[in-house]
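#help-structures
NK: newbie question, is this the right format to request a structure? protein is histidine kinase
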Amino acid sequence: MKNLSLKQKLTILYTVLMTVNICAVLAVLFSLSNREILSSVQNRLRESVTGAFDDIDWEDGRLDFDSDILELENGVYLSVYDMDGALLYGKIPYGFDQSMDFRDGQVRRQKTGSVEYYVLDMSYAPEENVNLMVRGTISITDAEESFRITLRLALICLPLLVVLTAVLGYFMTRRTLRPVAHITETVLAIREEEDLSRRIGLGEGRDEIYRLASTFDSLLGQIEDSMKREKQFTSDVSHELRTPLSVILMQCDALLARDGLSGEVREEITVIQRKADSLSRMISQLLLLSRADQGREKVTMEILDFTGLSQMAAAEMEGIAAAKGIRLETAISPDIMVRGDETLLIRLWLNLLQNAVTYGKEGGCIHMGLWEDEDMVTGYVEDDGIGISARDLPHIWERFYRADSSRSNNGSSQNNNDSSQDNNSSSGLGLSMVQWIISVHKGTIQAVSEPGRGSRFTFRIPKEKKS
Ligand code: ADP
């Protein structure tokens, strides 16, 4: 029952209830009409027997019977007996047991072969000392026959009625639950497309489902508003922070350009400059992501030489990797063209390569590859560094998410003012941006990783066919 849909459950319930109802009504109707039929048969019998008294006369010292007695009026056989039980006049049904004793005024049942009869005996004295017994016999089987036909018909119709009820019930339930299916479809679409502007929009209605839909719609409106406010807030904050940070960076540059600074002071200013620089990059990323959320980020799609662009990104990262003693090995196929945004695609490679350097093993190796098949371009970055635990892996695409291992890594680096960490400007935003870039290019990306052995990020985007 648990696996059945609400529609099926309601149809079954409705059919069972209707069947029970129909059966109960039929049972009551048939029992009442059966009783009615039998009592009318008994009345007919009594009327015929008493009516027969008028057809028996005593004339000139002998009995005279009217031939009406033989007429089987109302289907009643009439027969007249003397008090010794000898048949004087009348008709009896074929095969009827004549030895049956007489009981004055009492209707009894008597079965002969397959036919059942009502029998009524009534004494009658047409003359003093002339006592007769008038017997009426009527077949109950005949009277019940028509009733039985109706009953048989009802039994044949019942399964048809049940099927009809089930089919009608199913369609009615489906119609009633159609708005529920619409609500589910809309909610699923909102989840899949992350489009909070969609509404169920069932319109005006007074039943519970319509009320539920309009409650959902107003809730969606509230969520959309608060999401918009949050995005606007992030965007505004990022924007506002940019100006003071630029001032700090400019002041650092100006200070460092001065002569006569002691080595210690110069080192301290450099630390401030690095931190401010890393903060500035984080804010730029945040601003870009919040603009992307609001659909305000301008994306320029053009046909690009992805091979050349990837080689540029590799060249840019080679030195940074080498500073950590990491080799960068590339396997980039020639002449790969894609339709995309140049800045974003370079950002994609840089973010993946930067992560590979940051979380890679000192003295290790990073592999970067790019090739194409019939429709798609596949790129990957693989390192042999700390890896990502299965628990963290599904969350690395979330904004500001940083796996525990990288946090502790960062923590120690921050204490040491390690320059490589500052270069990375570890923010937990890099992969969110990668994911957004991939979605803009209608591609897919996935990460596989084994803690302690390294990670591999593979993306696929549609390729631009060479004409
Ligand atoms: P971050 O700026 O912290 O690197 P990202 O969004 O780029 O932010 O990455 C999110 C988290 O995913 C990182 O903090 C790190 O824990 C994990 N991660 C990303 N790339 C790698 C990698 N190549 N190896 C190990 N962990 C990684």
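mod (FA): yep, format's fine, and the tokens are attached above. The domain at 225-293 is CATH 1.10.287.130 (Helix Hairpins).
NK: thank you!
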